[in-house]
């Protein structure tokens, strides 16, 4: 398709995951940024009429702003690949890798990036081996504190920092509310940072790292999406060498997972300056309090311009 000044863009927002409300806010911000540049934007919920709509209208590009399973587990992206309509973001196979936190940790660790020791426990394991026996073994092998999280999902839903043995059973129940597989991970003490990675055609580039300092000590769902709950430092307060190592680790993770166009890589930097990979997000939050828009601004760019550039990259990659 020949390049044109005005694109017909369908922004997908909403969905049926636990992160629906966040997705609607992200989608609105993307649409506003693209509209401000003169593009023709339609915001659609992914419902039963979506695929027929795309087949009939054949937009220039689809811009998914779907968080949670409906947008990040690869299923919808696989269908978009079949339709042949260009779309922003990672393809289905890479999305599946990143969606599974345990799988992503394995892939990224093999690429040479440190990641905390962990154990992955499906619910079935508790029924087969007994909850008491399993948790006792975990506590004997992973030093407290640990972080318990759903193996799939985002926005810190179902995540608990466990500091005592008595807290672990409840944390497992909370994680299983959001996924039938839980990840128990050694908690690395240090500076929490998040790095947005963008690729508009010249290769993946790490934007300025964002340092996260929750007011109450934990970067919970509320802390992520309610103004005033978290202090952000952009760029992160890291010395030059550590900042470079963080950027390198983020790009390495993005490449190892085969991600495309944009991602957000979450890491902890320990006291020695080593970045530890936690997880990768194929569709970062794009709300008014989210990490990626802050990183874009810190890089000296406008969010709408970056979103449009990603749309053009998706068309070029189709």
Short description:
With 318 residues, this protein is α+β, with helices and mostly antiparallel strands.
Nearest-angstrom radius of gyration? 19 Å
User: What would you call the structural class?
Assistant: alpha+beta
Task: Count every helix, treating DSSP H or I runs of 4 or more residues as helices.
Answer: 13
CATH class of the largest domain: Alpha Beta
DSSP strand (E) fraction?
A: 15-25%
CATH topology category name of the largest domain: D-amino Acid Aminotransferase, Chain A, domain 1
SSE string, helix = H, strand = E? EHEHEHHHHEHHEEHEEEEHEHEEHH
The dominant shape is globular
Please state the average pLDDT score: 92
Number of strand elements? 13
Unreliable stretches, pLDDT < 50, 5 or more residues?
A: none
CATH homologous superfamily heading of the largest domain? ATP-grasp fold, B domain
Helix content: 40-55%
CATH architecture of the largest domain: 2-Layer Sandwich
Q: Could you tell me how far the N terminus lies from the C terminus, measured between alpha carbons in angstroms?
A: 10 Å
């Amino acid at each position: 398709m020949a390049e044109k000044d005005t694109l017909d863009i369908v922004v997908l927002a909403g969905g049926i995951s636990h992160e629906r409300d966040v997705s609607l806010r992200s989608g609105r911000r993307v649409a506003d940024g693209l509209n401000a540049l003169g593009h023709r934007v339609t915001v659609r919920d992914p419902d039963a009429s979506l695929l027929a709509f795309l087949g009939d209208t054949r937009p220039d590009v689809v811009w998914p702003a779907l968080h949670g399973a409906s947008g990040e587990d690869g299923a919808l992206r696989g269908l978009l690949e079949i339709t042949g309509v260009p779309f922003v973001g990672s393809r289905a196979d890479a999305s599946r890798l990143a969606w599974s936190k345990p799988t992503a940790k394995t892939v990224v660790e093999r690429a040479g990036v440190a990641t905390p020791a962990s154990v992955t426990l499906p619910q079935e394991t508790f029924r087969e081996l007994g909850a008491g026996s399993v948790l006792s073994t975990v506590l004997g092998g992973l030093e407290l504190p640990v972080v318990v999280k759903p193996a799939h999902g985002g926005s810190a839903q179902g995540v608990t920092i466990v500091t005592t043995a008595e807290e672990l059973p409840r944390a497992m129940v909370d994680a299983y509310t959001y996924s039938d597989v839980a990840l128990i991970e050694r908690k690395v003490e240090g500076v929490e940072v998040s790095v947005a990675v963008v690729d508009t055609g010249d290769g993946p580039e790490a934007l300025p790292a964002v340092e996260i300092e929750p007011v109450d000590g934990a970067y919970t769902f509320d802390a992520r999406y309610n103004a005033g709950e978290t202090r952000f430092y952009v760029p992160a307060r890291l010395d030059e060498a550590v900042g470079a190592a963080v950027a390198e680790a983020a790009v390495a993770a993005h490449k190892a997972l085969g991600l495309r166009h944009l991602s957000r890589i979450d890491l902890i930097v320990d006291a020695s300056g080593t970045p530890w990979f936690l997880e990768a997000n194929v569709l970062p939050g794009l709300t008014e309090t989210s990490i990626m828009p802050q990183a874009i601004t810190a890089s000296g760019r406008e969010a709408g311009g970056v979103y449009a550039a990603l749309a053009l990259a998706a068309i070029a990659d189709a």
